[in-house]
């Protein structure tokens, strides 16, 4: 049996450069792994049983529409394998939240099956398979602090972010990533990302500099539809976060803090709000 902790991500910066002919957008993102993880365990079973994904979340798709299932099916198809596989999926990462929960599960499946079935795939080959499932999967395979370009699948390693505490606040709403990108209009963006400034701050190990330049242009789409995001951002800062931003297409808001006591204080303050799930986690330098 193999067990993998599949980490969530936040975006320190998310910029949209334009729309492409294939209907995706060209993006420029700085992605950061956090400790919060789903837990996946894998075991082979008799081939007649096929691929089974059993999770702790009622209503989560269990067959083709589950990204973990999709990743397993892709491996079997690519390597012409006729096997049965049982995947136990404990979800801890909020779903449809902007934290790459589904993508990280798919990444975990690729990494696990490569090991379990001795497929001999190196990281670039795993990432090429991952990109067929979703744009964030290659990042989730590697983790850490990365610059993501193209539709998110072209990656460059960045200096590790100074370790800090991350408070996640997930309002009840679910946001579809496709919806957010489809409704993006450059004219509605109030502040554009300065990716170079964040990279410079990362190079200097300057947490304050990173915090000063946090920016996500998709806030211009998701916040008007879900006002509680702006409210949560304000509350994070009011209670002591160095900075706060929406992650990915939202609606999760994160706050960054360099001190554990302060982080616990913010968690306590936000936990009183109805219909908001609050999670304390921290940045990690690798998977
Ligand atoms: P991203 O940040 O990459 O846009 P997200 O965190 O916003 O991702 P997910 O949690 O990946 O969104 O969920 C998006 C959709 O994918 C949900 O509607 C969910 O039903 C579906 N889905 C399929 N497989 C999974 C999985 N293993 N875990 C979570 N969601 C999944």
TrEMBL record:
ATP binds at residues 94-104. Residues 199-271 form the GHMP kinase C-terminal domain. This is 4-diphosphocytidyl-2-C-methyl-D-erythritol kinase. Gene3D superfamilies: 3.30.230.10, GHMP kinase, C-terminal domain. It catalyses: 4-CDP-2-C-methyl-D-erythritol + ATP = 4-CDP-2-C-methyl-D-erythritol 2-phosphate + ADP + H(+). The gene is ispE. InterPro entries: GHMP_kinase_C_dom, GHMP_kinase_C_sf, GHMP_kinase_N_dom, IspE, Ribosomal_Su5_D2-typ_SF, Ribsml_uS5_D2-typ_fold_subgr. The active site is at residues 9, 136.
């Amino acid at each position: 049996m193999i067990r993998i902790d599949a980490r969530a991500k936040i975006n320190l910066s998310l910029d949209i450069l334009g729309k492409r002919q294939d209907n995706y957008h060209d993006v420029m993102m700085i992605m950061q792994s956090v400790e919060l993880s789903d837990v996946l365990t894998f075991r082979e079973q008799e081939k007649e049983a096929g691929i089974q994904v059993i999770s702790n979340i009622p209503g989560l798709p269990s067959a083709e529409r589950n990204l973990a299932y999709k990743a397993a099916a892709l491996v079997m198809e690519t390597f012409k394998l006729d096997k049965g596989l049982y995947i136990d999926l404990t979800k801890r990462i909020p779903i449809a939240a902007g934290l790459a929960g589904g993508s990280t599960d798919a990444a975990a499946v690729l990494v696990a099956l490569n090991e379990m079935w001795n497929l001999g795939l190196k990281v670039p080959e795993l990432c090429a398979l991952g990109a067929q499932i979703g744009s964030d999967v290659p990042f989730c395979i590697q983790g850490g602090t990365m610059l993501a370009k193209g539709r998110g699948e072209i990656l460059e390693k960045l200096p590790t972010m100074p370790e800090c505490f991350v408070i996640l606040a997930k309002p009840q709403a679910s946001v579809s990533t496709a919806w957010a990108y489809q409704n993006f209009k450059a004219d509605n963006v109030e502040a554009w990302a300065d990716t170079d400034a964040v990279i410079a701050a990362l190079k200097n190990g300057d947490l304050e500099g990173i915090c000063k330049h946090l920016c996500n242009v998709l806030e211009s789409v998701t916040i008007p539809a879900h006002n509680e995001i702006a409210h949560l951002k304000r509350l994070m800062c009011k209670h002591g976060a160095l900075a706060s931003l929406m992650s990915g297409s939202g609606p999760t808001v994160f706050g960054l803090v360099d001190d554990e006591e302060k982080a616990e204080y913010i968690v306590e303050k936000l936990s009183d709000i109805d219909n908001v799930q609050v999670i304390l986690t921290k940045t990690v330098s690798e998977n």
